[in-house]
Amino acid sequence: MIAKLSAHVPHLLLAGLCAGIASANVVRISAAILSLSALCLVVLAVGLSGARVALLAVGLTLAGAWWGALRLDAIDRSPMSAEIGRAGVARVTVTGPARRTEFALRIQGRIERFADRHVREPVLLQLPVGRSPPQGSILELSVLVAKPRSSEDGFDERTWLRRHAVHVVLRGRDPEVVGRRGGLGAVADGVRAAIASALASGVSGERRAVLLGIVLGEDEGLALSLRADFRASGLYHLLAVSGQNVAVVAGGVLLLAWLIGIPRMAGQVGALVAIAAYVLAVGAQPSVVRAGVAGGLASLAWMCAR
Q: What distance in Å separates the CA atoms of residue 97 and residue 106, rounded to the nearest whole number?
């Protein structure tokens, strides 16, 4: 019995950590209290061998609650909320693909500067209908800071955006591209551009738009009537990147490795690299991150013979 319990100790500890992170959605306790309590329990666990597993599990639960509270506090923090109703010149980095509506372009972005203030906060940028700025570009433009729309047709956009750390909408005009972002974001932009170029080579118009929508979740080029047709047929989910895309990427790499005779271990490493590159290319959408983590864990489990 003890041997069986010992075999599940890592799972119990991980479950405690996950439970603590999830509990932050229900109640947020002071970070100082949680961190101090978790530290005390870990110290006790080191000294008391009999109840070590239980104390470590509780300590990890408290540590998870502390981390979850910190993360939620960061999501709820919004310096730009104090600027609602003001107009000024802003510098915004485009962090996601544009979504075209009948009246505007809606773009995921991160504001870097507003008027004479340096800020760093996710925002939703709204531009007049036209050519959308490329992902990764840094824009300078005049904006009006506004609140997101509240409940409309049963969909509360304000709450949905708040859960993505977006608290304000920037209604802009006359954007000017003044640079490109660097770091890991620049790598992601390069991978995305390479995939789009290779995928839709020699294809144009709506065929190209459908391909980019299925592979990269980029539906900007789709006409509103075509989107309506996808919705009416129940196939609109094909234009959203999900777990099946990650499975196809990983499975394709493993199949290619098998066909050309590469060892399975090297194939799994290649699958991990391909999954990471694909998640970078399409952006940190929840469905993609979830599938990427699951696919990565499956490859790691095989490599570790677990």
A: 9
Better-scored residue on pLDDT, 84 or 59: 84
Under a CB-based contact definition with an 8 Å cutoff, are residues 214 and 239 in contact? yes
Please, which residues have CB within 8 angstroms of residue 95's CB and are 6 or more apart in sequence?
Answer: 108, 109, 110, 122, 135, 136, 185, 283
At residue 266, what is the residue type?
A
Token pair of 63, please? 């540590």
Closest by alpha carbon to 93, among 106, 108, 82?
108
Bridge partners of 108, per DSSP, are: 124
CA distances from 9 to 22, 39, 60, 178, 263 (A): 20, 19, 13, 53, 33
What mean pLDDT is reported for the chain? Answer: 81
Q: Domain locations in the chain?
A: 2-76, 79-181, 186-239, 243-303
How many residues appear in the chain? 306
Q: What is the pLDDT of residues 282-294, one digit of tens each?
A: 877 777 888 888 8
Q: Are 269 and 250 in contact (CB under 8 A)?
A: no
Residue range 79-181 in CATH 3.10.25.10: no
Can you tell me the distance from the alpha carbon of 32 to that of 138, in angstroms, rounded to the nearest whole number? 38
What is the phi-psi region of residue 174: left when phi exceeds 0, alpha when psi lies from -120 to 50, beta otherwise? Answer: left
CB-count exposure of residue 171 (10 Å: 0-12, 13-18, 19+): middle
Indicate the pairing of strand 87-100 with strand 151-152: unpaired
